[in-house]
Amino acid sequence: MDRRHFLSTSSLATLGLKASKVSHPKGKAEHCIMIWLGGGMSQIDTFDPKQKGSSKKPFVTGSDYNSIETAVKDVHVCEHLPQLARRMEQVSAVRSCHHHLIDEHAIASNFVHTGRPTSGSTTYPSIGSIVAHQRGAADPSVPAYMLIGFPNVSRGPGFLGPNYGNIYLTDMKTGLAGFTRPKHLNEDRISSRKQLLAALQKGSPADSPLADYRKAQTEALRLAGPGFMKNFNLDSEPSDLRNKYQTEFGQRCLLARRLIQDGVRFIELSHNPGFLNGTGWDTHGKGQLKQHELIRDLDNGVATLMDDLKEKGLLDKTIIVIATEFGRPPEFDGNGGRGHQGSAFSLVLAGGGLRHQGTIGRTDELSKQIIENPVTIPDFHATIHAALGINPAHELVDGSRPVPITDRGTPIASLF
Q1: Which of 85, 138, 256, 264 has the fewest Cβ atoms nearer than 10 Å?
Q2: What is the pLDDT of residue 191?
């Protein structure tokens, strides 16, 4: 080894040692509920209102709705978020989020879920799987990570492996597919079947596919029991509370609270009632016409969830995240809708024992460019991890390769 190479590698090693000793804030949250707005929430029509525009011809660039005051001085939100406006002291709308990917749904959704761009050689884990890996379930009798929505690679465990994947639910009416026992199977018959399986699987190598299957089946049998499945009986909740949650999205929020209360660590639930405006949050063209109904539905569901968690003593222990793949530009397209914008958009945090301030970051007069306190997606992930007591610089292992939990993300210090 020549002198120059020795000095350079020694310097890098020293820098790495210093980096590993960098202290990060450590929150006291125990759970996370991530609400996914697939399609791209328009920040200028929700949490970052600007000058009034119009989606009706002749189109006028700007917000499609009026803004209203909130519980935090000088912080305004869209007029269709009145309930969250009154609770803004427990909310931080991070208005300065950004990424520089092409504004395509799948690529951007993967990035916001994993904190890393798509790689041809590595499948990175979702934030839910990382939290499951680092913290496990708060109660060992329930899964660590649940998804109320459709599973895909971006929501999966990546290189962490299937043990850190999600248990998912797609239909609130039918419940978890395959987890409801037939009525004729009582505990005695279940016990007999377990004994038969044990005899058939005895002696299988620990690293064999059969061993993996055995582990998965043991987990499935456990979760199919009455203890975990009781969470899906929403009829056991008081009718007045269920009525406050109102819509299907609200019922998803209620189920999330029940699962959190039972010890699930991380829950992602989708808000995608496309029937309201025909497009969900991807408000091209005519999707803009009834966007206000989506916003009102989000407002009621999240506000009711916050109140419910607070009443149960769980709001300071549960960080609520409202996330989307990108925002929308202030201009309207030829049909009165909006396109895609990743250069500046809003993601939202609530509860979790954080020092909320209504907003973080600032954009220009049309919410197109960030002018104060930019926050990257890795920074946003690092903030969630830190709130949950996870070191965002901790290294995971992909084979023999160390992979930091976040891609050089730094938590938003003012929240701690």
Answers
A1: 138
A2: 75
What pTM did the predictor assign? 0.88
Terminal Cα-to-Cα distance of the chain (whole angstroms): 46
SS (H, E, C) 273-300: CHHHCCCCCCCCHHHHCCHHHHHHHHHH
Compute the distance between CA of residue 323 and CA of residue 315 in angstroms, rounded to an integer: 18
Q: Residue ranges of the domains in the chain? A: 24-180+228-415, 183-223
Distances (CA, A) of 95 to 112, 368, 374: 15, 11, 8
Per-residue pLDDT tens over the stretch 292-341: 999 999 999 999 999 999 999 999 999 999 999 999 999 999 889 999 99
Q: Which tens digits make up the pLDDT trace of 47-70? A: 999 999 999 999 999 999 999 999
Q: Which amino acid is at 209?
A: P
Q: Which one-letter DSSP state was computed for residue 272?
A: -
Q: Which numeric CATH code is attached to 24-180+228-415?
A: 3.40.720.10
**Contact status, residue 182 vs residue 203, Cβ threshold 8 Å:** no
Phi, psi (5° rounding) for residue 402? -75, 135
